Every structure is written in structure tokens, then in C-alpha cells.
Amino acid sequence: MAKNPIVFIHGLWMHSSTWKPWMQFFAQHGYECLNPDWPGDGATVEESRGNTKAIANHGIKEVADGYARVIATLPEKPILIGHSFGGLMVQILLGRGNAAAGIAIDPAPIKGVWQLPFSALKASLAVLGNPFNLSKSVSLTHKQFRYSFTNAIPEGESRQLYERYTVPSPARPLFQVAFATLNPNAENKVNVANSTRGPLLITSGDKDHIVPPVLCRATFNKYKRSAAVTELKSFANRGHSLALDHGWNEIAEYALRWLNEKGL
Prior knowledge:
CATH class: Alpha Beta
Strand order of the largest sheet: 2-1-3-4-7-8
CATH architecture: 3-Layer(aba) Sandwich
Structural class: alpha/beta
Distance between the termini: 10 Å
Helix content: 25-40%
Order of helices and strands: EHEHHHEHEHEHHEHEHEH
CATH topology: Rossmann fold
Number of strands: 8
Shape: globular
Strand content: 5-15%
């Protein structure tokens, strides 16, 4: 029996190439894998770093719709695996019925998740601290990346990941999430009541600064009205870089087991 393809979705400040180890891992287990870019992204990290104007000013709906167009070209509904803002895209698309299943790794908050832990606020200030960033693309310094993503791994590895994978990202999605509570038409709204959607796994890292576990639990709780399968898994001693640092395979292996348990 053929397996559903997997579409990987990256988040802010990460290039799509961060998924290459995951794609190799899942390809070895019989899955066709795709890792489409966000609008304006370059084919490489270097191209993206030189492409700041093209990357700027893209919002959540535009990005999700771009992935929906990719999905529409596939012969069957894919499994979606996304990290951070990619995890938010997973939930939006799964809620629309565009996917067979979704895995949201430390996902950015959906509308209705109002908690604002100090670490999440501090991690976001690099963008939200300047309202003129709204229509721009923003890069992180290594210090900001270290606090937001790599606080749970050695500094040497943090610098390697920073140099290898980080790219400018549009600031607009972060503003859209930050002010979603005030916007009835917020673009991070998810159809959490959809009971016909495929299964969803939400993960958290207990040392994550930018998406602390309290946000993942709050997201999980929003799905209680749905009869569809929704599960939450916490990984100990892991920060926001859990999908790309030296321990990525722990997350990937859990994801594979979870998919197999669901018959996917």
C-alpha cells in the first residue's frame, strides 16, 4: 500500500533546507517528501539572505494558500509536518481538510491562545519592538537566535546552526499572531471544531523559550470540541531548535512511530 506523501513546512528564520535530514529519514521509510519554500525565499540560504525585499511583507494566509496550491497538485492528501510557524500552517491546512494528518512541532499560537509567557515576549521583541518592521523582513542576531531557538544546546552548535540555516523572514506573521486577540478575522484562526479532519500531533520542548509548553498545552486544549484525534507530546530538555539540532532524530523517530500507529 502506497504511503501518503509528506509536505514539510518551515517556520520563521529557517530555510527549507533544514528539513533535508528529515526528508532522507522518511524517504528511507517509503515516503515521498517535499519541502516547499515560503513566498520570496531563495533556493539556498545564501540566496535568501540576499533577497530581503522579496521575503518581506508576506502574511499567514498568503503562505498557507501557497502550500495549499502545492498540495492540490498531489495525487492524494499529504501528511504535513511543520515547525514553529510551519506548525501553525499545518493546523490551518489540516483544519481546512487539505491533509491526511498533521504534526505541529512547537507551533506558533493559533487564534484563541492568549497566554503570553515572558520568554515568548522577550524572544519576539526583536521584531515586535519596532512597529515599522511590519512590512519588512527581519534577521536575527546570533544572540537573539541563541535565546529564542538554541538555549538548550551548546553555544558552539548554536553558532553552527545559525550560520548554516538562518535567513531573513517576514515580520508580518509575528505581528498577526501577537494581535490576533484583537482581530476577529485574524489569519491564524484555525477550524479547531472540525471533527472530520485527520489526526494531529502537537509537540512541545520543555525548555522552549519562544513557544513555551504552556502555549502548546493551550493550543491542544482548543481542540477539545473536536472528535478528531489530537495528541500532545512533550520532549524533555529540548528547546525550539529540537527539529534541527543534534537531537532531531528523536523527534523524527517519534513522528514516524505516531504515523505508523495511525496507519499512515
